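[retry 2/3] Electron transfer flavoprotein alpha subunit apoprotein: previous attempt timed out, resubmitting with same input.
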Amino acid sequence: MMNTLNRIDPRRPFTVTAQGLRRITLGVVGIADAGGSASLADARHAAHREQPKPRRTTAAPRHVLLVAAHAERGALDEHARQTLAAAALIADTHSEVVLLVFGEFTGDAAALGADKLIELPMFDRRTYAPDDELNALAACVAAYAPAHVLLPDNATGDGDLGRRYAAAADASVATHVVEIAAGHMCTYIRAKSALASRALPEVVLLEPNAVDPKLPFVGAGERVAWRFEREANSTVAQRAIHDLGIDEIDAAQLALEEADFIVSAGNGVSDVPAFERLATTLGAAIGASRVAVDDGKFTRDKQIGATGKTVEASVYIAFGISGAVQHLQGIKDCRHVIAVNLDASAPIAKRANLTVIADAQETIAALDEAAAAARGARATSAALLRPGKLAEGVLA
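[retry 2/3] Electron transfer flavoprotein alpha subunit apoprotein: success.
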């Protein structure tokens, strides 16, 4: 009989946590340094105690660790939070963690481990300005002279920015870092058959899931008023990179795996045209449960679940979906889940961030009416504020 037991690679990197570098192997917590004296049971009990977290340090800073990341809808994603936690965990008592956010940030920087927050709201994910971002990062480095600059190694801008900065500044850099500590970092080599270790370079690009973002302390969280002026004398013709903007397409034509806003119908939706009108009004992609697809209400490419599509939408609204385990697997990575269902004990209610106990059809009609009214009011306000229209609106 074939042995199907999964073997654990002893070279697998550790994860940096508040207790030090740790690795769980067959239920046993391995400790890589002397800092991990606390037991796993102690950590579990501490996690359940609702107590104010202490400041990581109150000593005068002598060194700076700079973390740079892009924000999405005012928040940092999990990978960026892990990178910020890494800086806070490897910082000593005389080190200050500075967070540089490209885009608007409305989160709690202190709770994430930052001592200072620099927010650059002029950089939006909808605009592509790599040269300006590089200049902003370089200016921040010049102002704070950090010992290390940490960025998430991702494909959404941070990894590219880190590589561009390292090349421009001729700085030492490590990419795809899978293990990090105060004295060293590791990355895979030889087709991931071995780990290479070295001292921390000037620029560290961290892979996801190398750090536990849960911190037992908080940072100072001080907001710094920092002004960055873009190149005013740089014309479009002089720039090497041109931003061609974003092509707007119908949300119904967007692949569900790429959709950021999805409305999904289940067996509780009987009026499909009304549901589709709501999706058009909201500008959302359309999904469906397996039951709705099997009934012929939607095509198979709209099915969400273990046997369909796995989605990662920021907002997922489920109308009349009970929430079978296969469907819940398909939406496990969604950020905000809203369920509309008559059954308050439906399985999807346990996954949902908000559950509306109401009839799906009535809710669809009411929501469509409210969304259409709000969109019309916004269009009217925009028209009145156009040049030449303001006076006309006031006189009327």
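[retry 2/3] Electron transfer flavoprotein alpha subunit apoprotein: The first strand starts at residue 15 and ends at 17.
[retry 2/3] clearing retry counter.
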